[in-house]
Design brief:
The protein is of the alpha/beta class and 386 residues long. 42% of the residues lie in helices and 18% in strands. The chain has helices at 13-26, 65-74, 80-85, 87-94, 106-123, 150-157, 166-176, 193-201, 215-228, 244-249, 253-271, 317-337, 362-381, and strands spanning 3-8, 53-59, 97-99, 128-133, 181-183, 205-208, 232-242, 279-283, 290-300, 306-316, 342-343. A hairpin with a 5-residue loop joins strand 9 and strand 10 (306-316). Helix 1 (13-26) packs across helix 12 (317-337), helix 5 (106-123) packs across helix 7 and helix 9 (215-228) runs parallel beside helix 11 (253-271). The longest helix is centred in the C-terminal third of the chain and has 21 residues, at 317-337. It holds the Pfam family NAD_binding_5.
């Protein structure tokens, strides 16, 4: 089941790490540590093998992929031995990377993207292509009349005005090309009603938003503990320090606000109320592709006795995100093959701000993911009636 994975932001740190990881797994040069789909509870015949993944993508820059990989190796994000060993494979992927279309109206740019997605699928004889957005975080999109109606949207795209943010333009192109779509970022993407209506019309599955890799992952484990023990969380404050391209992007106040909003939703849903405090994200260039987060939680127990919990998280964002990108591509491809469509709420395990209204508690999300994946595998074996 040869499956295309088209990465929007293909030369960025997360995408490059994902590509190096996929090639290393295909060549047997590394273990699938961090790949959730390789756990016994999720592994099975419905998922395309790593050897079946064909990689391509768009980016706004033309820095050679091998050079990006060497830079990440120098920063300790990927092992240098893998970059050295995968030179031929990286060159093959390089031939499938394209500069993002920038000429003409948004309709022209979407048409160029659709043509490239279609050519990629046909060139490699792919069963399907999953488009995954791993590009820089955008500011939240402002309202526009065309965002709610597919017919009005198509007409508006042909005009001189930029109607859609870039993430949504890619989502539109993916849908029009018949490709499932995954948004690993907090950007607008497929959130707009007109785009979701188009995806539903075409029977396409889609997943998002904002990959859960660090501080929010820990929150989704700790918050249920407080709720289940009936402890009253009085405040929860966090400071995030990160460098790299993502950190530089989030130095922009509008992009920062979009990211913070995504990170904050987990507490209110799990606890049933929003404690005092907030989340701050600061750019520290020296940290490169690594990030640190410090959280302070104050809470009250029996008889109102005040207590506190602190935790610090140090991680490499690209190394945490890349295996999840591969997981999501495999799961979304399997969902498409099974004929599933609409928002893949059972993939909430992977996201800070998941589609629909699923629980944000990691344990509950895990059980839903396992049940869903089991159904996909049973469908392939014939044990599950469809």
């Amino acid at each position: 089941m040869r499956t295309g994975v088209w990465l929007v932001g293909a030369r960025g740190s997360v995408a490059t790490t994902s590509i190096v990881g996929a090639l290393a797994l295909r060549s047997g040069l590394t273990d699938p540590t961090g790949c959730v789909t390789e756990l016994p509870e999720l592994r099975g015949p419905a998922l395309p093998a790593f050897s079946d993944l064909v990689l391509g993508g768009h980016d706004v820059v033309a820095t050679p992929l091998a050079k990006r990989a060497e830079t990440l190796a120098a920063a300790g994000v990927v092992p240098g031995r893998l970059v050295d060993a995968l030179g031929t494979e990286l060159a093959e992927v390089e031939r499938e990377l394209r500069l993002a279309p920038t000429v003409g109206t948004q309709a022209d740019r979407a048409a160029a993207t659709i043509a490239e997605l279609t050519a990629f699928r046909e060139r490699h004889g792919l069963a399907r292509v999953v488009v995954v957005n791993v590009s820089a975080t955008e500011p939240a999109a402002g309202p526009h009349p065309a965002h709610t109606d597919p017919v009005a949207l198509r007409a508006a795209l042909a005009g001189a005005e930029a109607v859609l943010p870039t993430s949504s333009l890619y989502a539109y192109a993916a849908v029009e090309a018949g490709c499932p779509y995954v948004d690993f970022t907090p950007s607008t993407g497929l959130r707009l009603p007109a785009l979701r209506a188009l995806a539903d019309e075409r029977g396409l599955p889609y997943a998002g938003h904002d990959g859960k890799t660090g501080e929010t992952l820990v929150k989704s484990v700790l918050a249920p503990m407080f709720a289940m023990r009936h402890l009253a969380v009085r405040s929860w404050s966090g400071v995030n320090l990160l460098g790299g391209g993502d950190g530089a992007t989030l130095a922009d106040p509008a992009a920062n606000a979009a990211k913070v909003a995504s990170k904050q939703r987990v507490l209110g849903e799990i606890l049933g109320y929003v404690p005092q405090g907030g989340t701050r994200i600061d750019y520290v260039e020296e940290l490169g592709d690594h990030k640190s987060a410090w959280d302070l939680v104050t809470f009250a127990g029996f008889l109102g006795v005040g207590m506190r919990l602190e935790f610090t998280w140090h991680g490499c964002d690209s190394a945490l995100a890349a295996p999840l990108v591969l997981d999501l591509a495999r799961l979304t491809a399997a969902a498409h093959a099974a004929g599933d469509s609409g928002p893949l709420e059972d993939l909430a395990f992977f996201f800070k701000d998941p589609l629909g209204e699923p629980t944000h508690a990691l344990g509950d999300q895990w059980h839903r993911l396992c049940a869903y994946t089991r159904r996909l595998h049973e469908g392939v074996s014939g044990a599950y009636p469809r």
